[in-house]
Each structure stands twice: as structure tokens, then as C-alpha cells.
Inverse folding.
């Protein structure tokens, strides 16, 4: 039998020559084992031989008297001690081996022990005189003491080589970044390096003598699969590679796992199976992150495509809304306030404005349009949004509105706040597929120094609080942590884009507010929005009368949409302006060249043949002081800053109300330095 160290060394990583080094070490083990066996056989023969010093023995056999003088010696002893057998009797044994006092003491102590205890003793010593290591067996005899000597110098060299190799390979194994383990045919671990502690949090010594299922892995199924793989390697003699996920004290780890058969000799069966496992958790996480980024890139490309599409249709759609909005306002002028038709026209006007806001939200979301803010009363906006949502949310969901806010004026973009409300309410409704109650409440809160803030860095002051609560299934802590992340969704690929709540977060943050969520499984969810109140709580803007919008002046109105041109001409004419219209920019330019006596030029941007910016440039070359108003349903390359840098007085987006248009016209016609009455 080889000792434990000889066993352990074979558990080290195989080299590229199919375990050559490991096999060589096993060969050395076998040689040492054979030497030991031959020694035992020789000693047994010596003990049972009739002659105490058999010349045919492979061991040096000597019979010593009580004074340790040689009485008899065989030929092997003469060869070992460099003397003829006839010259040995009468000599003391020790001087033939060495003159060293330390080794002599060892020798004599063993000799005395053999005599005193009347038993055989075995020990090893080095003979400086012979330059050899000797294994000595002493046994009491009637004449004195019988000694057998064996030259074990070669064996010692092999053991030292074996030990050195084992130490080197053990150091390599313990410094390996990978887990290295060795399993016997009984599937029990017989070697484990230090990497198991670093990666799996397990003591290598604890693993010795244990199967995978006894090692503390939380998944019994994974441990069973590992044992099954080792059995397969023993059965087939072929290496096997797998990937396993194991839950340990260090958390979940993903292992690239490879089992390799080991042979001590080619003509014998498999001695053991070497397992090398690499921790690829970081690589897997990086791969998952890469795939997630790729998915986000694809989603962002979809959004970009949506933005491009929305930009392409925005111009035409805004022109349609402009016609609807303008004609609704013209019809209201001709309708009595007491008439039922007046309310219908007002609803039509409101719907057109809502459509305008929707287009602007889409363009803003695709980063194609800026969003202006103004002082807004949130309560009417909430009620209007709820009215809009009632037809889209299931009748099994009861929608309640609770207004407890004393003040609700905030500086915000109405369209974006409405988008926040729609997203939160839609999210709440989807959490109650089987019905429930949704509560939208408004209140006020004041944060002072030292108060618990909704989020770090939140400013103190007065805030409007909007909360949307549901009685749905709720969410766990892990879901709650990711709820505002883009593309995060709990409803699967068909359940939505996962952008609704991230849009809410972005809008509220841009409004210098905060949004929080409270939820627990089975207890529903509450989303709370905090928006800073404006310092000046102004009264609601009153309805402007037609008489207040009237003015005087000659206007050249240019737009390629005939319906827009007709609506604008009638609307501005009713306000007292003299209006000339053109649907082609070339004709407008010619008209201006022939008679440039216009007080204001209003031109669309996107027109065939010549853009509004190009037309404005030509007009300003003819008359640098002419006021030009540029309007557009959508243009990716033009904004207010670009337009004014080109000398244009005002820039605004379609569709516009008659009030908005008349105020802009009045502003550009007002003499410099004068104030609005």
C-alpha cells in the first residue's frame, strides 16, 4: 500500500500528455511497494531458514554477540560492507558503518531495546562510511542479536523524488484558480484543493471522504447529476464536460465542470476521476448583461423607428388637427352659448387639443420636440384623465378620485403630467385583471429640514402629492427594486414594452419631483408622485372673448395645405386683419416682390419646392425688417433657437388655437418698447 501522500499526488491536473506525470508517479509507488514486499519476504525466509546467515539471501544477514561483534555473515553482507565474508567475524559492526556518535547512539539504543524487550525492531539509518541508506531489522537470538541490512538508497531517492513532485503538484493545485478534486470508485472525494474554499466556501478537509450530495450543496438534484457524471466516466473511460449551477454560502455559482479518468497503469482499470471546475459566474453574468444590452439596443432601435415614423406623420396629422381646431373655434363664434351644439363644439375643440398634446408627447419621447411648462391646475387634469380612461379600463375596476389638496398649481407640461397619470392608472388596472379598486388621491405636504424625504437630495418645500393605489396582486422586493428600469416588465414579451413606469420616472424627475412605490405580494401597490407647488398660485385663466383678440394689419399667410389656408384666412379676417394667402412658396415670394407692403408674414416650414426657412431668407433679403412667423407641424432640423438666429421673429408648433395665433401676431406687430395693454 502506498501512503496518503502518494495517493494525493495523482489528484493533480493532468498534463497534455494524457496524465504522463501522474502515471510516472504511480510507477514509482509500485516500485517502492515491490521493494517493501521483497524485503518482507526475505526477512521471513531468514527467520525460518535453518542457517542463520544464508548466502543465497538477497539481504545482508549478520549474527552478532552481546558485544556487537560479528559472529557470522553471509556473502551479501560482505558485498554491502565492502569486506569478504571470511574477514567479518570478530569485527564490531558499527565501525564498519560509521564513526558518527549520533548514528551510533541510534544503533546501540535499538540493539539494547531488542535485547531488553526480546522483540524484533526495524529502523533506518544512513551509513556515511558506505554512503548508503540502510534499513535495519534486529531480532534477539540465543547467541546474541541477528541483524538484516538492506540497501534502500535507491528507494530513498525515489521517495524523495516522489515527495518533491507531490509537493510541487500540491502547490500548483492549491494555487490554481480552478477547483481540482479527485474521486474514487465509491464516488467519495479523496483530494480537494484550496479553490473550493474560495469559490464554494467549503473547507477542503471537510470534503475528504464525502460524495457530492454530502458536501452541503443546496440542490440535491445538481449533486446527483455530478455523481452520475462521475459514474459515467468510470464506466466509459471517456472525459465528460458539463455546466452546473450550485447554490452555496457564497451565493449561486455557475461552474464549467470537466471530469477526466485517471489510470496508474494502462493495463489496469480506472483508479480515480479527476474533476476540474472553473467558476464562470462572472462570464455568465457578463454574457447575460451583453444580451440584455443587445435587447435594449434593439428596443431603442424600435423606439428610434417609432420616432422616425411619428415625425413623418406628425406634420400631416398636426395639419389635420389644425383644421379641426380652427373650424371648431369658427363654429363656436356662430353658435349661441345656450345651444347644445356649443358644448359639442367645445368637446371637439378639447379633443383636438388633446390630440395635439399626444403628438407632442410622442415627439418629445423620441427626443424630437421640446416640452414647454406652464402653471397648471392638476385637479381638472386628473378628472379629465379619469374621464378619458373610463372607456379603456375594465368595468370590473372601480375608479375613485379623492381630492384633499388645498392647492394644486404646479409648473408642468400638461401633456406629460397626463401621460404620467395614464401610465400609472393603466399599470394599476393591469394589476387587477380580476377586478378591484383604483384610488387616485391628491393632497399637500410640506418637507422641512430634518424630515424624512422621498429620496436623497430632495429639496424642502411645499409639494402636491398624487397617489395611485390599487388592490391588485402587488409585487415582491426584488421586483420593486427594478420597477422603474427601462424595458423591465413582469408581464412577459406580449405584455408591453416595459417603458411605462420608466417614462413616469423620467418625467417626474425632469419636473424636479419624485416618485415612490409601496407594495407587497397580495396587498396591492401605491405609487406616489411629489411635484413642487409654484410659489404664485394664480387664478385659473379665464376664457378670452373674441373682441379682445382683434387687431389690424396686412398678413401674408403661406401654407401648402388648402384647408389650413382657408381656416386661417377666415379666422384672422374675423379678428380684423387683412389676409392674403398662398399655397405655394414661389407665388408668395413673387407676391412679396411685387408688393411688399405686408405687416406680418406667417409661413409653414415643410412645403414642397421651398421650405419656410428658405422663403424667410429670401424675404429678409428683400426687406430685412419684415416680421416673419414660422410655424410647423414637425421639423427635425428646426427649433425656436435656430429660427430666431435666422432672423425669424416667432416660432411655434401646429396645431394652434386662434388665441395663440392672435397673441403671437399682436406681439410681433407691437412697437418695440411698448407694453401689452
Amino acid at each position: 500500500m502506498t501512503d496518503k501522500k502518494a495517493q494525493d499526488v495523482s489528484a493533480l491536473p493532468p498534463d497534455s500528455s494524457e496524465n504522463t506525470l501522474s502515471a510516472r508517479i504511480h510507477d514509482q509507488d509500485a516500485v517502492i511497494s515491490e521493494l517493501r514486499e521483497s524485503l518482507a519476504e526475505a526477512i521471513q525466509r531468514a527467520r525460518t531458514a535453518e542457517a542463520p546467515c544464508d548466502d543465497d539471501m538477497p539481504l545482508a544477514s549478520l549474527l552478532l554477540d552481546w558485544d556487537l561483534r560479528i559472529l557470522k555473515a553471509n556473502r551479501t553482507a560482505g558485498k554491502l560492507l565492502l569486506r569478504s565474508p571470511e574477514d567479518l567475524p570478530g569485527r564490531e559492526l558499527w565501525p564498519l558503518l560509521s564513526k558518527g556518535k549520533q548514528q551510533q547512539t541510534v544503533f546501540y539504543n535499538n540493539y539494547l531495546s531488542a535485547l531488553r524487550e526480546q522483540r524484533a525492531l526495524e529502523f533506518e539509518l544512513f551509513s556515511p562510511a558506505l554512503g548508503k541508506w540502510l534499513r535495519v531489522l534486529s531480532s534477539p537470538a540465543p547467541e546474541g542479536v541477528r541483524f538484516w541490512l538492506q540497501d534502500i538508497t535507491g528507494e530513498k531517492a525515489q521517495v524523495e523524488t516522489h515527495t518533491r513532485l507531490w509537493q510541487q503538484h500540491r502547490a500548483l493545485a492549491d494555487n490554481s484558480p480552478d477547483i481540482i478534486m479527485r474521486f474514487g470508485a465509491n464516488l467519495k472525494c479523496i483530494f480537494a484543493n484550496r479553490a473550493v474554499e474560495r469559490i464554494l466556501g467549503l473547507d477542503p478537509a471537510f470534503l475528504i471522504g464525502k460524495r457530492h450530495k454530502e458536501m452541503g450543496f443546496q440542490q440535491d438534484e445538481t449533486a446527483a447529476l455530478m455523481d452520475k457524471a462521475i459514474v459515467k466516466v468510470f464506466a466509459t473511460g471517456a472525459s465528460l464536460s458539463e455546466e452546473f449551477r450550485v447554490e452555496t454560502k457564497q451565493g449561486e455559482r455557475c461552474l464549467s465542470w470537466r471530469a477526466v479518468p485517471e489510470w496508474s497503469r494502462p493495463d489496469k482499470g480506472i483508479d480515480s476521476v479527476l474533476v476540474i471546475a472553473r467558476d464562470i459566474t462572472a462570464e455568465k453574468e457578463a454574457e447575460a448583461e451583453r444580451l440584455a444590452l443587445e435587447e435594449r439596443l434593439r428596443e431603442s432601435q424600435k423606439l428610434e423607428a417609432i420616432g422616425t415614423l411619428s415625425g413623418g406623420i406628425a406634420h400631416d396629422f398636426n395639419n389635420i388637427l389644425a383644421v379641426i381646431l380652427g373650424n371648431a373655434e369658427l363654429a363656436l363664434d356662430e353658435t349661441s352659448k345656450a345651444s347644445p351644439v356649443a358644448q359639442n363644439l367645445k368637446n371637439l375643440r378639447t379633443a383636438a387639443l388633446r390630440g395635439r398634446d399626444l403628438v407632442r408627447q410622442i415627439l418629445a419621447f423620441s427626443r424630437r420636440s421640446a416640452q414647454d411648462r406652464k402653471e397648471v391646475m392638476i385637479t381638472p387634469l386628473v378628472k379629465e384623465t379619469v374621464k378619458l380612461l373610463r372607456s379603456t379600463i375594465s368595468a370590473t375596476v372601480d375608479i375613485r378620485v379623492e381630492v384633499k389638496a388645498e392647492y394644486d398649481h404646479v409648473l408642468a407640461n400638461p401633456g406629460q403630467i397626463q401621460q404620467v397619470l395614464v401610465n400609472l392608472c393603466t399599470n394599476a388596472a393591469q394589476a387587477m385583471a380580476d377586478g378591484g379598486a383604483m384610488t387616485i388621491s391628491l393632497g399637500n405636504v410640506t418637507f422641512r429640514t430634518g424630515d424624512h424625504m422621498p429620496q436623497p437630495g430632495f429639496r424642502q418645500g411645499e409639494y402636491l402629492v398624487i397617489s395611485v393605489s390599487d388592490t391588485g396582486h402587488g409585487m415582491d422586493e426584488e421586483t420593486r427594486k427594478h420597477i422603474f428600469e427601462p424595458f423591465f416588465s413582469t408581464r412577459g414579451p406580449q405584455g408591453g414594452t416595459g417603458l411605462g413606469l420608466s417614462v413616469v420616472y423620467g418625467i417626474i424627475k425632469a419636473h424636479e419631483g419624485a416618485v415612490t412605490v409601496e407594495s407587497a405580494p397580495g396587498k396591492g401597490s401605491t405609487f406616489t408622485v411629489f411635484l413642487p407647488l409654484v410659489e404664485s398660485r394664480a387664478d385659473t385663466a379665464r376664457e378670452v372673448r373674441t373682441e379682445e383678440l382683434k387687431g389690424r394689419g396686412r398678413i401674408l399667410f403661406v401654407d401648402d395645405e388648402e384647408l389650413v389656408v382657408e381656416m386661417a384666412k377666415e379666422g384672422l379676417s374675423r379678428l380684423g386683419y387683412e389676409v392674403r394667402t398662398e399655397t405655394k412658396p414661389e407665388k408668395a415670394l413673387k407676391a412679396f416682390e411685387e408688393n411688399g407692403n405686408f405687416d406680418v408674414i406667417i409661413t409653414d416650414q415643410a412645403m414642397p419646392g421651398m421650405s419656410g426657412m428658405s422663403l424667410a431668407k429670401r424675404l429678409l433679403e428683400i426687406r430685412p425688417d419684415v416680421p416673419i412667423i414660422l410655424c410647423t407641424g414637425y421639423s427635425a432640423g428646426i427649433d425656436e433657437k435656430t429660427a430666431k438666429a435666422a432672423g425669424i421673429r416667432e416660432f411655434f408648433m401646429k396645431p394652434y388655437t386662434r388665441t395663440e395665433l392672435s397673441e403671437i401676431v399682436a406681439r410681433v406687430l407691437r412697437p418695440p418698447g411698448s407694453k401689452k395693454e
